[in-house]
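quick one, 127 residues, struct below
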Amino acid sequence: MSEHETGAPTDVTAGMPVTDETVRHGDGDAAAEDALAAFDDGRRRTFAAIADTLIPEAHGMPSAASVVTEQRLRFVFRSRPDLAEPFLAALRPDLGEDLRGRLDALERDEPTNLAALQLVLVGAYYT
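---
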């Protein structure tokens, strides 16, 4: 097994598998509240646009933007407090308004932040 193959479901370079360190990372309630406090209107709009791009309404299922609420995000951040910082970094304003450009830049330059954004989105969608 190479150093990037752990057997975890996110078995990719810069993936976000749960580890013992993740569980010991800290107070999930505080991380959830801190992440949501930094989740300003600009980040909310960006997240909603990304959510609808990555999980659009299809086959009778709602779009991610119509389902993912602060309550669902809070649940994810309480479970995985280590995702809050890279999630917010992926939504920072200096990455611009162009969603495709943002996602491409994250994939190329910040794969860990992109993985966190995707994991938070999917986790909150299916919560």
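Residues 69 and 124 are 8 Å apart (CA to CA).
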